[in-house]
Amino acid sequence: ADLRLGEPVCERLAGLGPVRSSIQHIVPGVTFQELINLVKSKLITGSMPTGFSAVVNSREVTAQAFSPGVEDFMVATALNPEALPEQYLDHLCKRPEHSLQRLVVKCRESWHIKMQEQKAIVEMSNFASEGPVLVTLRMTIAATTTGPSGSDPGCSVESKLFARRRVFGEVLPIGICDSLDAAHRHYAAAMLDVIVSSAQELGAERQQHQPSSQLQQTHASGHAAGAGSANFPQTAATEDPGLRGCSAEAGFASRDGSAQDSSVKVSQAG
């Protein structure tokens, strides 16, 4: 079934199929609230950064609901088909009936945010694309601390990719699981880069809009306390010839799945 507002059904009962790829990583220097704000404001049609818009054609919030301590919202996303492996497009989405119609890979996102716990459960699915293969991404995002002293803000992200045939019991196409695993790791690294860069840009914009007296006070207090605004890591762009349209953070994960950073753990199942 398509996604809905509210907390997702547990993996065991949701019928998502086997886990095809699993990643754990840390988003350094970005608080939980900053990350949620970025997802709802910066990563939306009309505001998307270049690296993100190369993969996502459009992304719009379609529904929201609030209850004490909990926020839910739905997002409609259209992926750029040129950023996906050509040989698997027919499995992931339904081709248009007429040749003049544009191919669109439709996805839905559901966000269930527990504000007091600073935890979010996210689900993204290509169900709306009507392809014969259903791919579901589940993420658990939580506030954490980073840095040598363990006092810098950050977020931990656990990301799992599931895949199965729309019709239960049918076998998946040969090679699609390996391609999905590679794409999962590639775009997770790129997304990490986009979030950190976007948070850095927003921080710079806020400083520019501060009154000069407040800026001087903030600058002075930062020197006195020995800690200014968060220092974001500089990332280098790499390009995977098999996965076009997005840059990945250097040192996040190699093509063969071996983790290259102590903050990143990659595993593959299935």
Looking at how many chains there are and whether they match, the oligomeric state comes to single chain
| Cα shape | globular
Class derived from helix and strand content: alpha+beta
Query: What is the H/E string?
Result: HEHHEEHEEEEHHEEE
Count, helices: 6
Can you put this structure into words, describing what you see?
The protein has helices at residues 11-14, 32-41, 50-53, 89-92, 176-209, 212-225; strands at 19-28, 56-67, 70-79, 105-114, 119-125, 133-146, 152-165, 237-240, 243-249, 265-267. It is α+β, with helices and mostly antiparallel strands and 270 residues long. The protein has an eight-stranded antiparallel beta sheet. It has a two-stranded antiparallel sheet with strand order 8-9. The two termini are 23 Å apart.
Please name the defining characteristics of this protein.
alpha+beta; 6 helices; eight-stranded antiparallel β-sheet; two-stranded antiparallel sheet
Secondary structure elements and their pairing?
Blueprint: H1 11-14, E1 19-28, H2 32-41, H3 50-53, E2 56-67, E3 70-79, H4 89-92, E4 105-114, E5 119-125, E6 133-146, E7 152-165, H5 176-209, H6 212-225, E8 237-240, E9 243-249, E10 265-267
Antiparallel strand pairs: 1-7, 1-10, 2-3, 3-4, 4-5, 5-6, 6-7, 8-9
Summarize the structure in short.
The protein has 270 residues and is an alpha+beta fold.
